[in-house]
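Figure 6 in text form: structure in, sequence out.
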């Protein structure tokens, strides 16, 4: 019989735009993982990895449509994968911005 996991305790500032009390940790896995890596600190990321496991965290980060560039670098270091494996990095390369004059 599997023991139930304790829900992680994240800082409310990470989820400032949603109702924190009704957050579905198992239904919105990708959203939560992306948001924790984007706006959380080291302890939040540790709790996220502890709750979801490294495999699920890696899957969510690799398939994210958008992550800021600094978050992509952090995620690449945490899950030990090259930048070229990230979907958001590939999309960024396919859609370059305007040339700065």
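Output sequence:
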């Amino acid at each position: 019989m599997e023991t139930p996991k304790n829900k992680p305790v994240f800082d409310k500032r990470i989820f400032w735009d949603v109702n924190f009390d009704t957050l579905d940790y198992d239904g919105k896995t990708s959203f939560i993982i992306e948001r924790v890596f984007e706006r959380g600190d080291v302890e939040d990321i540790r709790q996220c990895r502890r709750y979801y496991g490294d495999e699920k965290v890696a899957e969510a980060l690799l398939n994210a449509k958008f992550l800021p560039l600094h978050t992509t670098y952090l995620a690449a270091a945490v899950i030990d994968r090259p930048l070229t494996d990230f979907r958001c990095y590939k999309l960024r390369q396919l859609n370059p911005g305007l040339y700065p004059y």
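Caption detail: Residues 58 and 80 are 9 Å apart (CA to CA).
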